[in-house]
From TrEMBL:
Organism whose genome encodes this protein: Oceanicola granulosus (strain ATCC BAA-861 / DSM 15982 / KCTC 12143 / HTCC2516)
Subunit structure: Heterotrimer of A, B and C subunits.
Sections of the chain in a coiled coil: none
SUPFAM superfamilies from the UniProt entry: Glu-tRNAGln amidotransferase C subunit
Function noted in UniProt: Allows the formation of correctly charged Asn-tRNA(Asn) or Gln-tRNA(Gln) through the transamidation of misacylated Asp-tRNA(Asn) or Glu-tRNA(Gln) in organisms which lack either or both of asparaginyl-tRNA or glutaminyl-tRNA synthetases. The reaction takes place in the presence of glutamine and ATP through an activated phospho-Asp-tRNA(Asn) or phospho-Glu-tRNA(Gln).
GO molecular function: asparaginyl-tRNA synthase (glutamine-hydrolyzing) activity; ATP binding; glutaminyl-tRNA synthase (glutamine-hydrolyzing) activity; transferase activity
EC number, UniProt record: 6.3.5.-
Native organism taxonomy: Bacteria, Pseudomonadati, Pseudomonadota, Alphaproteobacteria, Rhodobacterales
Similarity section: Belongs to the GatC family.
Protein name as catalogued: Aspartyl/glutamyl-tRNA(Asn/Gln) amidotransferase subunit C
Biological process terms in GO annotation: glutaminyl-tRNAGln biosynthesis via transamidation; regulation of translational fidelity; translation
Lineage top rank: taxon: Bacteria
Broad EC category: ligase
Keywords of the record: ATP-binding, Ligase, Nucleotide-binding, Protein biosynthesis, Transferase
Catalyzed reactions: L-glutamyl-tRNA(Gln) + L-glutamine + ATP + H2O = L-glutaminyl-tRNA(Gln) + L-glutamate + ADP + phosphate + H(+); L-aspartyl-tRNA(Asn) + L-glutamine + ATP + H2O = L-asparaginyl-tRNA(Asn) + L-glutamate + ADP + phosphate + 2 H(+)
């Protein structure tokens, strides 16, 4: 798969990134380099390889799942510009 300047323009638009027309060829080359690297990664045989959390064997730290910091509704809502009936009040966006 190859990315041309028109596709790079569409990707930039979708990402809401302003890219000048003269920079589009460089962006397309960069996208193509990334896709080439992904193709290289897809060639690696990972059959039987266990997922890792770190490069060194270790277990994730675990904690008991208990509520430790509850009952702070009033403090949280004190930061809200508008709160009603114990909830954040926001402008209506759907008619």
């Amino acid at each position: 798969m190859s990315i041309d300047t028109e596709t790079a323009r569409k990707v930039a638009h979708l990402a809401r990134i302003r890219v000048e027309d003269d920079a589009l060829p460089a962006l397309a080359r960069e996208f193509n380099d990334i896709l080439g690297f992904i193709e290289q990664l897809q060639e690696v045989d990972v059959e039987g390889v266990e997922p890792m959390v770190s490069v060194t064997p270790m277990r994730l730290k675990r904690r008991e799942d208990v509520v430790t910091d509850g009952d702070q509704q009033a403090r949280v809502l004190a930061n809200a510009p508008d709160a009603r009936e114990g909830f954040f009040a926001v402008p209506k966006v759907v008619e």
